[in-house]
Amino acid sequence: MGLKEVEAQLEAILFTIGESIELERLAQAVEHDQETTKKILHNMMDKYEDESCGIQIIELDGAYQMCTKPSLYESIIKITTIPKKHVLTEVLLETLSIVAYKQPVTKLQIESIRGVKADHAVNKLVEYNLICEVGRLDAPGKPILFGTTEEFLRCFGLQSLESLPAVNPEKVEDFKLEAEEEAEQLTLDI
Questions:
Q1: If DSSP codes are grouped into helix, strand and coil, which group holds residue 130?
Q2: Are 159 and 59 contacting, i.e. CB atoms less than 8 angstroms apart?
Q3: Chain region(s) in the chain for CATH 1.10.10.10
Q4: Helix, strand or coil for residue 180?
Q5: What percentage of the chain carries pLDDT values higher than 90?
Q6: Which of 102, 101, 157, 149 is nearest to 125 (CA)?
Q7: In the chain, where do the E strands start and end?
Q8: Could you write out the DSSP letters of every residue in 39-63?
Q9: Of the residues 37, 109, 131, 173, which has the fewest C-beta atoms closer than 10 A?
Q10: How far is residue 61's CA from residue 160's CA, in Å, rounded to a whole number?
Q11: pLDDT tens-digit map of 84-139
Q12: Would the pLDDT of 181 be above 80?
């Protein structure tokens, strides 16, 4: 089977499935090794970068997905019902960043870091499909462990969690000091 046929197979699979598919599964489907399949996919990704193409192939943590280029969403919205936009408030963003950097993490650990209840924020982030249950902690009560989803990667334009910006250690210390000062002020106010 020639290169063009393999590209056609990969294109058909990615288009039809619509969700991300792991490299291993794609390689099995086209009967090639993973390294060759990855090279073919990246070659296809380069072809789709041309501005005359309305679609693209993106890599999400070792999986691949075919989707519309973000620059063309406006055109699509004109003929479809406008999707409900999820608003990420400061509370949701704080909670999401804790999950992203500390995952897997329990709701109690999130609450410990934030200093307030996290029920609403966690439920909203699950509803928005930005975080999900990734397991249970081996502790009394078997609390749920949360982690980010592929939708999180997609929404924030990340290929993997390794693409998250590094946290500046000096900023972390500043945040700790601010949090301690706020906690001390709350104690004084009470």
A1: coil
A2: yes
A3: 3-77, 90-189
A4: helix
A5: 54
A6: 149
A7: 21-22, 55-60, 63-68, 105-106, 131-136, 144-148
A8: HHHHHHHHHHTSTT-SEEEEEETTE
A9: 173
A10: 4
A11: 667 889 999 999 999 999 999 999 999 988 889 999 999 999 999 999 999 998 88
A12: no
Distant-in-sequence, close-in-space partners of 82: CB < 8 Å, separation ≥ 6: none
One-letter amino acid for residue 76 of the chain: I
CATH code for the structural domain at 90-189 = 1.10.10.10
Segment holding 12, helix H or strand E? helix 3-17
Cα–Cα distance list, 58 to 63, 161, 182 (Å): 8, 15, 42
In order, the DSSP letters of 91-118 are HHHHHHHHHHHH-SEEHHHHHHHHSS--
CA 117, CA 105: separation in Å to the nearest integer? 15
Other C-beta atoms closer than 10 Å to the C-beta of 117 total: 11
Distance CA 61, CA 17 (A): 17
Q: At 109, list the tokens.
A: 């650990």
* CATH architecture designation of domain 3-77: Orthogonal Bundle (1.10)
Q: State the residue for tokens 């200093």.
A: 115
- Smallest Cα–Cα separation from 10: which of 29, 36, 33? 29
